[in-house]
């Protein structure tokens, strides 16, 4: 999307969904780091992933979250696994949901992939718990 063009309806819808799922702080960091080089890619993911797939009515964000984490874990996309684990605070996917999804990863994509994702999930949940604890004491 160029500076002079208005965002498409799918982009606008995608940005709302992205912010609701990932949180404003994450999206603001991503947007502030955007360059002319990666702007077309950012537009693609906002429109495609967030404006199309994540905005469809057939599945809840919880369901999409569970499937997304399982797929990312199976493919070994560690940073994305952690990001989507953090997003469970907004999607409604529970720790039990993620545990079950990663058991499926172990069987259908391999124990090493699930083992790595479980480590990432445990560390990410611990960070989330620590942040919540700090917030509750502030």
Q: What descriptors fit this protein?
A:
138 residues; mainly alpha; AhpD-like; 2 domains; 7 helices; globular
Task: Give a structural overview.
The chain is mostly helical and 138 residues long. The chain folds into two domains: 8-58, no CATH class; 59-138, Up-down Bundle (AhpD-like), CATH 1.20.1290. It is built from seven helices and no strands. The chain has helices spanning 9-22, 24-32, 39-53, 61-75, 78-91, 95-109, 111-137.
Instruction: Give the H and E element order.
Output: HHHHHHH
Alpha-carbon distance between the two ends: 41 Å
Radius of gyration: 16 Å
CATH fold-level topology of the largest domain:
AhpD-like
Total domain units? 2
- Report the sheet-strand fraction: under 5%
Secondary structure tally, helices: 7
Any chance you could write out the topology, listing elements then pairs?
Elements: H1 9-22, H2 24-32, H3 39-53, H4 61-75, H5 78-91, H6 95-109, H7 111-137
Summarize the structure.
With 138 residues, the protein is an all-alpha fold. It has seven helices and no strands.
């Amino acid at each position: 999307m160029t500076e002079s063009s208005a965002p498409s309806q799918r982009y606008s819808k995608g940005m709302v969904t992205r912010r609701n799922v990932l949180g404003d702080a994450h999206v603001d960091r991503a947007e502030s780091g955007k360059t002319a080089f990666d702007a077309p890619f950012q537009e693609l993911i906002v429109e495609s992933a967030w404006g199309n797939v994540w905005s469809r009515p057939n599945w809840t964000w919880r369901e999409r979250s569970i499937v997304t984490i399982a797929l990312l874990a199976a493919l070994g996309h560690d940073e994305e696994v952690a990001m989507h684990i953090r997003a469970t605070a907004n999607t409604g996917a529970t720790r039990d949901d993620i545990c079950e999804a990663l058991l499926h990863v172990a069987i259908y994509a391999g124990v090493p992939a699930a083992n790595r994702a479980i480590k990432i999930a445990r560390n990410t949940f611990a960070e989330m718990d620590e942040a919540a604890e700090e917030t509750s004491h502030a």
